[in-house]
Amino acid sequence: MKKLVLILVAAVGILAGVIFQNQAEFTITAPVSIEIPKINVIAAVEPVGLDAAGNMDVPKNVYNVAWYQLGPPPGAKGSAVVAGHYDSLTGPAIFFNLSNLEPGDEITVVDENNVRRLFTVEKKEVYADADFPINEVFAKVDKARLNLVSCRGKFDKVKREYPERVVVYTVLGRCTSKLFNYCIRV
Predict the structure, then answer these.
(1) CA-angle at 80, arms to 72 and 181, nearest 5°
(2) How far apart are CA 174 and CA 183, in angstroms?
(3) For position 50, what pLDDT does the model report?
């Protein structure tokens, strides 16, 4: 019996050593891709800052998304913001179907360490461009959030913009790594 206990203690110690040795695997780093199964999105992430007008910049490729790198990365406490184009000159772009997401739908963000973080949709809102709630989208810090933003409505050819913004608000659910094949609550 003592031998079995010693073997179990040694196994737990080795396992703990492996887990602690690999904690960097769960360090929150910049996102590299996003997956939204419900709307068939698998996209690369472009880190962006502000454009010349002082607004969040947009992805250069209409099939990528932009992560606002002046805010937290997805998985860190606070509001990580990811934006994508609604359409392009040639047709639908990456977030064309963003408004089809509903509470309970899931979004996965993969970071530079190949850690997969699962976010769950809490709510979806549509705002007139003039009423866009910057603080609610960019500045909530109560928990790890991921807010997805895109345009919506009929394109105004004179102003060269859409009149509405759709925002999908999500919260972090769990994260996993390729190294460990199980979920960890964060």
Answers:
(1) 90
(2) 6
(3) 97
